[in-house]
Amino acid sequence: MVQIIRQAINTQISPNNIVIIDSFLLSLCQPVRNHRAHVFNELADIGYNPSKHLWFFRFKVHMLVVTLSGYILNYVVTPASVHDIRAVDDLLENCCQPYVLADLAYLSYELREQLKQKGYHLWTPLRQNMVRAKQHNHWKLMAMRRTIETRFSELCAFFDVEQILARGLTGLQLRMKQIVLTYNLRYFEIN
Q1: Hey, which residues does 46 pair with through a beta bridge?
Q2: How far is CA 2 from CA 111, 179, 185, in A?
Q3: Distance between CA atoms of 97 and 191, rounded to whole angstroms?
Q4: What 3-state class would DSSP assign to 163?
Q5: What one-character DSSP code corresponds to residue 164?
């Protein structure tokens, strides 16, 4: 029922031409318990979080934000070891916006060409040592792309999304659906 409500709301938004994709980590236990955790043993895995300098037993949540004001159109939950590029096709399923902003994790010539064939234009920042990086990494595009980081912070602050205490896959899926639905309803309240 939650999924049906979310899909109905998705048809009511008037999105921009730009979508933003990124991912965040969903830890399942404290780092001390990484090797003793058995709840999602066959689905999750241990991976490194470079921003926190810790190893976590976790999932990775890939999100597609449609409007620059932060409406979440789609998300995919994968094991932490799945690279961000592998979830792009699932995220862009039924997406009609032509411009996709992403971070350096999505920097791939093959991905850009694959999406170009499907009618999407992928923009990722270039590394500082790459040719024409200063011209390509325009500050306005970088600021638009950072919108998704703000949305992740809001999900953590309002819904504590990084600490979902589910004991099974069904509970995890239901909790994520509830969080996204509630967040999107909040989007309509604000806008």
Answers
A1: 57
A2: 32, 10, 12
A3: 20
A4: helix
A5: -
Could you list the pLDDT tens digit for every one of the 191 residues in the chain?
777 777 777 777 766 788 899 988 877 666 666 566 666 666 766 677 777 777 776 778 888 776 677 888 888 988 878 888 999 999 998 888 889 999 888 999 999 999 999 999 998 888 878 887 777 878 888 888 888 888 888 888 888 887 777 777 788 888 888 888 888 888 777 76
Residue 130 tokens read as 């790459």
What tokens appear for 17 in the block? 């031409």
The kind and range of the H/E element at 134 are helix 133-136
Q: Can you read off the two tokens belonging to residue 90?
A: 């699932």
Distance separating the N- and C-terminal Cα atoms of the chain: 24
Residue with tokens 């998704």: 148
Which amino acid does the sequence have at 52? K
Closest-CA residue to 95 (of 71, 124, 111, 77): 71
Q: 152 is written with which tokens?
A: 């992740």
pTM of the model: 0.81
Pairing of strands 54-65, 72-79: antiparallel
